[in-house]
Amino acid sequence: MSCLKCLKYTMCVVNFIFFICGATIFGLGIYLKMSFNFSTLVPSIPAMNVVNGLFILGIFITCVSFLGFLGALKENRCLLISFFTLLFLVMLAELAMACVLLMYENQIDQGIEEELARSLQETISKNTTSIEWDTIQTTFQCCGVNNASDWKSNVPKSCCRSTPCTDNLPYFTKGCYSKLKIWFENNLLSTGIGIIVVCSIEVLGMCFSMTLFCHISKSGLGYVHK
To answer: For the chain, what are the domain ranges?
Structure first.
């Protein structure tokens, strides 16, 4: 019994932490929604941008963690089996996404480059720059998609190596596409480790929930359907 109580309260604590994380992600989505317009960078799919993804992810994490927390606290079989089912579906979705990324890596890479080029052309046609492009170019110290010539005669100040711009190498020489690609490759290992850790937590959560579910079923406690 003591081990089961420890398991129960461990599930409560872990799911409460995940609930806070989900709420934080949702809040980050609201902040980015108010500050940036990511559809500017991906004009062909404005409805499925980073901000909307953060909204969906934040809501989903809070809902699933709430089910796990309440199911463990109240020893409710219905909530526990719902928690297990949702985690299982999440793992299937993660595996499917990993397979898609591996199978269509080149197409996705080419698509990102084309979207950046289209976004830059739309920005030039408006005869202005955008806070999204300024942020990327300043953060990654890059200019344009491939180089500064992509901006033609409308090179923004965020491409400058220094302020004010000088005649000696005034702009960053590398394009943002190559810089972003290098950044993703450099962080691939840490991303993989993070995914493995998340998957391990999900498996443990599924095991814990089923252990509690079986114990509650044998003891006759929890929700009983009549």
So the answer is: 2-128+187-219
Tokens of 189: 């290992």
User: Block means of pLDDT (10 residues each) for the chain, length 226 residues?
Assistant: 78 87 84 67 57 80 89 86 88 84 83 84 75 84 88 83 67 88 84 81 85 79 47
pTM for the whole structure = 0.70
d(CA 22, CA 203): 19
Q: Which amino acid is at 70?
A: L
221 backbone φψ class: left, alpha, beta (φ>0; ψ -120 to 50): beta
**In the numeric block, which tokens belong to residue 68?**
């796990």
The whole-angstrom separation of Cα 20 and Cα 26 is 10
Q: Alpha-carbon distance 6 to 108, whole Å?
A: 45
The CA distance from 8 to 75, in Å, is: 8
Write out the two tokens for 56: 């969906």
